[in-house]
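Async update (no meeting this week)

Hi team, since we skipped the sync, here's where things stand on the single-chain job. The sequence we agreed to prioritize is pasted below, unchanged from the tracker. I ran it this morning and attached the output directly underneath so nobody has to dig for it. Comments welcome in thread, and please keep replies under the output.
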Amino acid sequence: MAAAAAPHGTIHPPNSTIYVKNLEERIKVDQLKEALSEIFSEYGNIIDLVAKTNLKAKGQAFVVFDNIQDAERAIKEIQGFELFDKPMILDYAKTKSDATIQKEGDLEEFEAHKRRRLAEKERKQAHEAAEAQKKLKRPSATNGAEPAARPIKASRGAGLKSSNPGAGAVVPEEYLPPNKILFVQNLPEDYDIDGLSSIFGRFEGFREVRLVPGRKGIAFVEYEAESGAISAKESTAGMALGEEGKVIKVVYQRK
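Output:
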């Protein structure tokens, strides 16, 4: 039996947040938000309206209503409405918005929501970085012919062989997917386990700090779950420590 079609051309289940796409990208954000607010406010109280200027988010916006009923009515009436000569395509957002969860007044749920959203964002960034690296490594087509031999380039470390010649592309540290273990770098030499524990022990599920014998300036911090590590990374990355104000680097450990 075929699945029933989603109402009003939507894919996701009803939500008080509406996802708007196919917007004119050349319009300034302030002007776009003003136009969207004027149109959507006819259908209920808007508690948030998000439109961003970065390249990936252009042509999109999120309109957050006070309740689901107003969002449903807006989608029914506005679906396909032309704004700046382009028909808007509307759907319900995949998840609740920050504004909705804050309005519901559950601080614990709001913090968990932010951690999930951050984790999903970092997983996506890690995937995109890995895909970009694969494309750089992929050889160009040669119509079946053997590629011409390239001259060997002399470089520092020439003559050394990789211990894993079949290894794939390496994802940059900044885009590694979430892990319950953090790798902390650029630490002041006088920071010991107690000092680091006082910083990282404030976050949920903290287990331990591990220093590396013979290596100064680095440490590993472990949590019971990824959620604790996500919160710690978000709060401590770029923190300045010690008398010299050294800025530490906090990334997820490679899996």
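Quick observations from my side:
The helical segments are 29-40, 68-78, 98-104, 107-137, 193-200, 226-236.
The first helix runs from residue 29 to 40.
Reply here if anything looks off.
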